[in-house]
Design a protein that fits this description.
It is a single chain. The protein has about 150 residues and is mainly α. Helices cover about 40% and strands about 0% of the residues. It is built from six helices and no strands. The longest helix is centred in the first third of the chain and has 17 residues. The radius of gyration is 18 Å and the shape is globular.
Amino acid sequence: MTTRLGAALIVAAACAAGCDEQLADVAGPTPNLTPTFSSIQREIFLTTDSAGRAACANCHNPNGSAFRQVGLDLSSEAAYGLLVGVPSRERPELLRVAPGDPDNSYLVHKIEGLAGIVGLRMPRSGPSFLTSGQIQIIRRWIERGAPRD
């Protein structure tokens, strides 16, 4: 019995050593997603995930209702320029994405459903909302300065 426990601990340690240390605590349908804008756009904004969470760009596109209301297109190359350093239409005192500051980024407020948001938590089709892992990846990208990568 002690041998099995020891072997299990060795296997677990080896697996943990191979993980991306920054994302080791991230769970959900995109646990290995790198916190880059291109991966977030591709895997969260543009893709309906395996759990059925609708792609953000379903509404945030030039023909979508969210685009008409808040002017945010997450479906194209324009997405980065419409997010980073741009005041929110709903709360102009907050930037949609404040580089280096996820706690003061309106995008984070909306996807976490924080008090003080205008309208509903996003994605509006929730629940199911983004997973805590997906939100953490977005937060980490913003913490890194929200680079266009």
